[in-house]
Amino acid sequence: MKKVLIITHQNDNYSIETVTKQLEEQGAEVFRFDSDIFPSKISVSQFISGKEICTYVERDGKKHLLDEFESIWYRRFYLGHALDKDIPEMYREPILEESKRTILGILETTPVFKLDDYRNVRRTSDKHLQLQVARECGLRIPNTLVTNNADDLRKFNVDNDAGIISKMQTSFAIYDEGIENVVFTNTMKPEHFENLEELQNSPMKFQEKIDKEVELRVTVVGNKIFPFSIDSQKLDGSKDDWRKEGVSLINDWVPCELPDDVNEKLLMVMDKLGLNYGAMDLILTPEGEYVFLEVNPVGEFFWLDRLSEGKISQAITNLLMGEGKRRVRMN
Fold first, then answer.
1. Residues 69 and 11 occupy one common structural domain
2. pLDDT tens track for 298-309
């Protein structure tokens, strides 16, 4: 019987249950490593000697040797959320850091297939690297400026006649009095250039504004490509960033087809990055040109999986079970 380890957390979405069910239907045994309850309720041990390395994980009285697993699906990593609240704050950070180093060290030294390797996920999440690789693969990318220099930003705005947009290089939210404010992509307006002093303290990414016929979310699993498109221009709130109206538009995504040459280039990007899974964002211009924006190595797919009748989760299941192309990470 093949075994599969899923690294996630207790509040992850139903895609975990979907893939777990499919794995079990194919005869696999699934060990769910909810990282938010490590180290409180999950135990790990690694024995290292001159002859061998043996790693065990244990939950609910069930102990497994990691070397016996077919694969590991890395989904989410939320360590220590279930730590005893009585632990003094001065000890919590060291505990979390030791826990993180333990798990990452174990992942690094466990010789099984990983979807995907954590170190490579972190490396290939870099937007600079993604744009460089996409360009090398022949994809059009937006004119891009990453800077904390106000003069360079003003010149970049002048050089791009259609205007520019601002976006962050990481996904995060700003909390003001407990209210979550997600930072989305926004069009740079004239008033934004009147006071740029604060840019010096925080570099940002700026790109040329590109006209959109539709936006695309292309999920790649191994060599399987699942493209969907959305008319993000139908709502004022989604014109710059469809995620602003993500809930309102969730049922408006439709499956689409990409030209063969675009498919080949996207797979080439995945090959160069050494990724087995990626959620890619692209724009299709009114002139019919595809523009690569970015790839999220652990991007969400659950709403598209439902629209694809489970084909994305099935492709993930198959890859975890050893079917299909498996890529190795970049060193």
1. yes
2. 999 999 999 999
